[in-house]
Amino acid sequence: MSILVDPDTKVLIQGITGGFGGRHAQLSLDYGTQVVAGVTPGKGGQKFSDTVPVFDTVDQAVQETGATVSAIFVPPPFAGDAILEAVDAGVDLVVCITEGIPVADMMRVRAAMQGAPTRLIGPNCPGVVTPGTGPDSHGGCRIGIAPGYIHKKGSVGVVSRSGTLTYEAVWQTTQLGLGQSTCVGIGGDPINGTSHLDILKLFNEDPETESIIMIGEIGGSAEEEAAAWAKDHCKKPMAAFIAGATAPPGRRMGHAGAIISGGKGTAEAKKEALAEAGIAVAESPSDMGATLAKLLGK
Amino acid sequence: MNIHEYQAKELFDKFGVPSPEGIVAHTAAEAKAAAEKLAGTGDLVVKAQVHAGGRGKGTFKNGFKGGVHLVKTADEAAEIAGKMIGQTLVTHQTGEDGKLVNQVMIARGVDIAKEYYLAILMDRATERPVIVASTEGGVNIEDVAENTPEKILNLGVHPLAGLQPFQIRKLCAALGFAGDQAKAFAKLLKALFKLFLDCDCSMVEINPLVVTPDGDVLALDAKFDFDANALYRHPDIEALRDPSEEDPREVEASKYDLNYIGLDGNIACLVNGAGLAMATMDIIKFSGGEPANFLDVGGGATKEQVTNAFKIILGDPKVKGILVNIFGGIMDCDIIAHGIVEACKEVDLKLPLVVRLEGNNVAAGKKTLAESGVNLIAADDLSDAAKKAVAAIA
Lengths: 298, 394
What we know:
Oligomer: heterodimer
Strand content of chain A: 15-25%
Largest sheet of chain A: 7 strands, mixed
Shape of chain B: elongated
Number of helices of chain A: 9
Radius of gyration of chain B: 26 Å
Number of strands of chain B: 19
Structural class of chain B: alpha+beta
Helix content of chain A: 25-40%
Strand content of chain B: 15-25%
Largest sheet of chain B: 6 strands, antiparallel
């Protein structure tokens, strides 16, 4: 097993005819992911890559193809609407890759999603990958923008706010031979759909996930909340890294959520909370994989 | 993004948030005219306009003390304004370099009966705007939160229901407003909340909010922060940006969609991705060095972006070496390698350059670097790169 998605998951892509969405839809197809539909209003009836049908609405795409997951690549002004359209169509999971959505839009989207069964991951995230068993992990489910080949089917669950830093951890665990069950990028925005804690709970219950790497960064208190829960409930060995120990207060470090304000959200405080919960904290980002391997006695 | 006090006042006027009358002046003559226009009963205040707190207790580099002065006459206003405009003000928030004062605001002096604190901010934990109010105004609110947390009221507003009348009543009760004052406060709060939402603010802070002996409720000073992601739909607010208040390197970087923040160290870094860029700064420090900057070139950096990134990095005289860390997931490492080579040639790089490339098509990228003739130090992984960068400038 894995969490959220597996190689049989049927995926639709909102914004498949855009440059960015199209490029990554193709890479997902190449990886062996079941990309069954695309959605672009006004372009229904076309085919993407000669094989994938494009629909005008998410509802039509779901009805016709049975897709259960939507990946969103539409520009920021339209992304909130796109998320709610996917929720309305009743998909299980929406992965919003779009970067730069206004916080007020996300606040309203999240409030409007209350009570709906759909889970949102992101926005401003690299997506979700469950590696496959083929060469370079092909045959898996790749949703989003992560490079497929750095993965390897295995037992480590990876959860992170950041894209390239996730790749770093994935690559380290691949090189150590551990591989990954599922890798989830929850995104770098202050308001997002799924937290570190939500993903930890899923990994904790997933039989295929034997250990966990959690990557956090300065700002907010999501890592502390995850640590507090993990202390009493997490059954699996956990390693972590917090980026931004050298970041000055009051400055937004790229991600809208990565900011130390009012003395809160510092890397130091987060590392302490993690260590106190019995999580092995890597001091250096180059040691994320090694810290976990040591914990596992490998 | 921050704005000046006089710009905040313009927003207040537009939305109907009461604040003392004030006029911006760019010269001593303008200050005199503004003071004459405002002349009536009572004093006027001349306030230096910079994006930093602690103005009143600040000192100008020309020796003139105080960025906020009470004056009685228009001539006096002109004289004080003349001593501020074109001068550099140093406060506890500006750092020792201080901030150049390009304009002052001439405002009507206000008699204060009592000071309060009022702010609205976007709270990430509860995913809604939160109103923060206190009877302890005019002081540092973080100290109040630390010492007397019971004197701070936090009130979340539901994103879809909006600000409710009962919430205003609750605030009035907590702040001790009744009768006409409660009405005046309710009017101000409703206007402020509308401003907060309509302008996509991430924070608006009024400190102090004052009640005058006549019973008026006024916003005496304001601090704004706007959601950078939402500026595309507010060209009028974007236009309030004052590049002279920002690090010129950051202004330059933003022209090329580069995310740059200057720091105090001497090892510059150029990285793709915000998380990895932060982690690269961290590992430089962990390896015994000091990062000179945060620089995220983004997921799909072009040759032009890489070249401009190098130019910005090299514009910092403190920089003694450069560390390039690219995890070319989707990006083709060979394309990045060509970008680095061309950038080095174009800027005629003399400083030590450590390059760590990983990811898609990395073999071709490394070959391009090796055959380029550019003098660089290749690194195998993140840790190796940081160690080599620290060693290279030792």
